[in-house]
Amino acid sequence: MSDYLVRATAGGGQILAIVARTTELVEEARTLHATSPTATAALGRALTGAILMAATLKDGQSVTLHVRGDGPLGGIVAVAVPGKVKGYVGEPETVLPLRSDGKLDVGGAVGRGTLDVVKDLGLKEPYRGSVPLVSGEIGEDLAYYFTVSEQKPSAVGLGVLVEPDGKVRGAGGYLLQLLPGAEEEIITVLEKNIAAVGPVSTPFSQGKTPEDILFLLLKDFDLKIHESRPLSYGCDCSRERLKDILLALGKEELQKLLEEQGGAEARCAFCSRVYRFTGEEVAGLLARVAAQERDG
Predict the structure, then answer these.
(1) What is the pLDDT of residues 178-200, one digit of tens each?
(2) Which domains does the chain have, with CATH numbers?
(3) Which GO cellular component terms are attached (predicted)?
(4) Which end of the chain has a smaller Cβ tally under 10 Å, C or N?
């Protein structure tokens, strides 16, 4: 089964529901970044959360999640457009003891801090929101963000099940939001259904589809599926983009690279691809920076 999501409404249009299977793309991220099981779970949840949020956007729009925690993981970044996501963790080799319930300690790895959300909607300025981390488990933090920052009562479930050898066995998540005018009784039924589903990584690891989980979450509600979209991990880096990053270093740093290394090597944080620039290329960048400074 390939990764994909479904987007639906239920309860006569009072509930927005999105369910995504992300097993393959989280496994690809694990391979690219050589993450430990704990880092895999944390990054996988962030990637899944970002892809769920992107499903509410239009093509050409994007969302960036930045989890800034004080734990050993060193922070998480996930960037998504509809159907595609990329991301990385600060310290991919982070290892922590299992929690008392035998689960990976994502909250301990993330620590305390903030969740920052940036939505580029194609307007003059992007939308920015920030909330304190309530648990560091990512799903709860996103639900808190939606409720507090966007005033959209939400339930978010994110899960990554990692095999003993480190491979991703199942990953995915769901986003349930009450739309304006929703009746209070709906919350009671949704809470019951969510409890019955349990950790969302389990049904995905058992081969359940997003539709299967959608029907369980929205049991006893009328349901209308509006979209099914394939999902993938995708990085859009290029030599030109990495050149822009080198230019941003400034004249002194470029001069230092040229003198000490005779060139430059830049690694993309999202896909680990390495771009090498010759001394002649770095000298050319240095000349561009000098000309910009001269011309004011």
Answers:
(1) 988 788 889 899 999 999 999 99
(2) 4-233 (3.55.30.10), 239-294 (3.90.1280.10)
(3) cytoplasm
(4) C
